[in-house]
């Protein structure tokens, strides 16, 4: 059956056609996004939900979304989506951060020009029949210092444009490497230095706990006298009251804001101040940008629903379509390793460690981590998936760590999973053979070579005669056919294990019969999703 997607906000017909062309069953009804009750009524029928800003995806909506797998936001901001609730539900939330990058960067440059030359005020004055040429004395951008806060995708475009205007550009960004700074032709500085040197300051960072009110009253006191502030990023980055005060005092020469702490902004301390340019969140409002983000979200959602590729997800590691092809068997393996441990572990888990060896270290290990943790948790929570697993593990106080190492041993690559409880450590390792099939290669430090089947039996025992006979006879007596049989031991007369791959689920009476022999320390029936 084809995946079903609901488009509940206005999206271009071209974007809707992308869903259809990719074989998606799409419902395009922008009225649903504005009707909460109707959205609650229908959302359970859909695998995907494509939105802009009108649709509010609350925890109540997510609770009703029994089949939902992905939410795609045509745009950057996802304030209208309850991401923590989506993560716990196992729903991927994607946005489209690159479709409107040029448009937003251009708007920041336009706002810088507007405040430098007081264009809006001069236009209004001239429209009123005045000719106040001497009133509107501006400043040139050439040779001025532009301070860019955030040199990511949009910030880097602003930097490129500013170089074309012959401005000197400095940037504050904790994640900006010296190599990247050199490539951009920008001087990397600390925030306080930027405040004291920049003639213009433009913000291009997301709103987080660390960036909220980054331009505070204290920061404003450190500004170069006569500086001008531009914010086309997110409302809340600037203390608007403190900035308004600085503008009135003449400490700041001007400001240009496209975003506000509260939106829609019907009032603000910045309104009606001289040389303050304000626009109603127009950063992404061009025909090209609106079309680009719509097309991008349609492609991203289709890719995920049809191939498992994850792009621009906010609550899961991204996996490209090419990565998905290569990593598919390894994701399966990580899930199987986790499932094995999860089915055997009855006490609370305190810690999980994943060791990646050899070629697998070059893969997207964050996605493999998520698959392994999901496998561990699924026996106790069947609804868990790669999205929700890390959130649930964190809620349970489980610490997760990752280790990588160069190739060792006979395998080009393998994964070793270790879990720690208050009672024990349990480990298992596996690899993927050239045929693309995952295999278990070590359990409890004992080397094995076990094919993974849908139905399996795992036993531990002392290395004594009679084990193989007891296993074979018991399975046969209960009508269970053994497809594959793997044995391993630590040493002669030491610890030993057996893994049976069988054709049918093993009856409880067969497990009880094995336990009754007294030969086994542990007997467990296991199941794996090998589809």
What does the secondary structure layout of this molecule look like, with pairings?
Blueprint: E1 4-7, H1 13-21, E2 25-28, H2 36-42, E3 48-51, H3 59-64, E4 70-73, H4 83-89, E5 92-94, H5 101-117, H6 119-127, E6 145-149, H7 153-164, E7 168-172, H8 178-184, E8 187-188, H9 191-197, E9 200-203, H10 217-220, E10 227-231, H11 240-249, E11 252-257, E12 276-278, H12 287-307, H13 321-344, E13 349-358, H14 365-377, H15 388-395, E14 399-405, E15 413-421, E16 425-432, E17 438-443, E18 446-451, E19 455-462, H16 467-477, E20 482-489, E21 495-502, H17 508-516, E22 520-527
Parallel strand pairs: 1-2, 1-3, 3-4, 4-5, 6-7, 6-9, 7-8, 9-10, 10-11, 11-12, 13-14
Antiparallel strand pairs: 13-15, 15-16, 16-17, 17-18, 19-21, 19-22, 20-21
Helix pairs in contact: 1-12, 4-15, 5-7, 13-14, 14-15
Structural features, described:
A hairpin with a 5-residue loop joins strand 20 (482-489) and strand 21 (495-502). By secondary structure, this protein is an alpha/beta fold. The strands form four sheets. It has a seven-stranded parallel beta sheet with strand order 8-7-6-9-10-11-12, with helices on both faces. The chain has a six-stranded mixed beta sheet with strand order 14-13-15-16-17-18, covered by helices on one side. Strands 2-1-3-4-5 form a five-stranded parallel beta sheet. The chain contains 17 helices and 22 strands. Helix 5 packs across helix 7 (153-164) and helix 13 packs parallel to helix 14 (365-377). The two termini are 17 Å apart. The chain has helices spanning 13-21, 36-42, 59-64, 83-89, 101-117, 119-127, 153-164, 178-184, 191-197, 217-220, 240-249, 287-307, 321-344, 365-377, 388-395, 467-477, 508-516; strands spanning 4-7, 25-28, 48-51, 70-73, 92-94, 145-149, 168-172, 187-188, 200-203, 227-231, 252-257, 276-278, 349-358, 399-405, 413-421, 425-432, 438-443, 446-451, 455-462, 482-489, 495-502, 520-527. The model has no long low-confidence stretch (mean pLDDT 92).
